[in-house]
Amino acid sequence: MSEIEPGMRVRHPERPDWGIGQVQSVVGDRVTVNFEHAGKLLLNLALVRLEQVHG
Hints:
Elements: E1 9-11, E2 21-27, E3 30-35, E4 39-44, E5 51-52
Antiparallel strand pairs: 1-2, 1-5, 2-3, 3-4
């Protein structure tokens, strides 16, 4: 996957119940994502590989 950047739509592969999220900010390995069903979450990209959603 390409580098994560603000505005990207992503999915957490281990938490499909969270729905699609939009990346709000990226600082180093930390990314804030606003998910449809889980709200705004801070994730560590060293531990989670987000999948980009196209379309």
